[in-house]
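Usage

Read records sequentially. Each one opens with the input sequence:
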Amino acid sequence: MQEKKIQLSFISAHISELSENEQQLVENAKSALKTAYAPYSGFLVGSSVLLENGEIINGSNQENVAYPSGLCAERVALFYAGARYPDIKVKTIAVSVLSKNFEVNDVISPCGACRQVMAEYEDKQDQSIKVILHSPTDEVLIANTVEDLLPFMFKSPLLKKH
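and closes with the structure output:
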């Protein structure tokens, strides 16, 4: 038996330390919170995706009384970007959160399903996607690749073979 270690890399910063373009992307994610439909959890999530062509796609979480039928903000934005601009690469995704029921003071990370979708987009385009996670306190956590959020992503080249 051999123990192996994985090293992940993140940057912790204040929103004011981001580039102007990254600050704008976070502002878009914060603005997307207004369109979140979260009557059950009261947990609002906004996401903004910056594409290589300069387009920014926003998404928000959309709940449903049949919980599995809802969709997270990250997937709303990524799926729309993939449908609208199927051949354009994703450069950066920003995610912001807010709760109607409690105070959020920390950065909240995407759920496992969203991480897997982000990882699939990164794998598909063969290019890293920067992830900026924003808290209501304006602190951010930055990963330069989705792999730092999901080091053991599910992928198999065999699934793509016919």
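Summary fields computed downstream for this record:
- The longest helix spans residues 112-125.
- The radius of gyration is 16 Å.
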